[in-house]
# Entry
Amino acid sequence: MSNIRPLTPLLAKRAQEELGEVPERIDADIQQLREWIQKQPHLTARTDDQFLVAFLRGCKYSIEKAKHKLDNYYATRAAVPELYKNRFVNDAAIEILRSGVYLPLPKPVSPDGPRIHIARYGVFDINKYSLSDVLKVRTMLSEIQFREDDNAIVMGFMEVIDFKGLTASHVLHFNVVLVKKLVVLGDKAFPYRPKGLHFINVPSSCEKALNIAKSLLSDKIKQRFHVHSDFESLYKYIPKECLPAECGGSNGTIETGTKEWEKKLLSYKDYFVEEAKYGTNEKLRRGRPVDSESLFGIDGSFRKLDID
# Structure
């Protein structure tokens, strides 16, 4: 019997309807994916049930897609060093988290709905940290979600990107290549799916950067990309009570949520030390190596992404 956390009855129903999850077959699917990993000479990966089922759910139980995504998930360790090198739970990671720059909220949209993320890129200290430092911490929180957040894995996430407080200096930190890489990782390596990207308090100086970001997305995701003039417009997509007090809602405060995530991140300190031993050895891969060139294109260009 697999050692995975049982879904709530509502989420179990959604997993069966939307992902094609067959409870009686989960053990066999996990075992098939595990056996494939063990036969790959180039791949050193985690193989516990909860981790593997996240990839199966994220790929709607296509074993081949799950293999491909999991392989890329580890190949990116070397291909995107700016996000994965020296990725530890240290003072810098905690300070970035405490700034409230990025936070998964405690309550999802509904008991069987997507998780909500809040990103506030105007609040981190640009004199101490770069965008890559911030996004590195974001990948750490995402990986904890892959293990713990059934709503995010089964139903995806909706993200509110609040540009309040963004200065010209923050805009200069905007790194289009890094953002491209993050979009590719979301498509090719992460086992959860964006169900909506909602931008609020967007200064005119950022509109060009947003248009660049939008151009990187598939038509399907462009339809989930919304710029709001005020919170009232946002509430049409995400109920007010699902947002934190800072956005006029009642889903906790960013400060309280950040404190909870700080405890969680600290509890994963050993986990991220251990993470350093996982990855791929491209010299041992059968066939073409997976590297920055194959993932992101020689000149940084790549085809439009399609996130189902």
Q: What stands out?
A: Residues 9-83+276-290 form a domain with the Helicase, Ruva Protein; domain 3 fold (CATH 1.10.8). The chain has a mean pLDDT of 89.
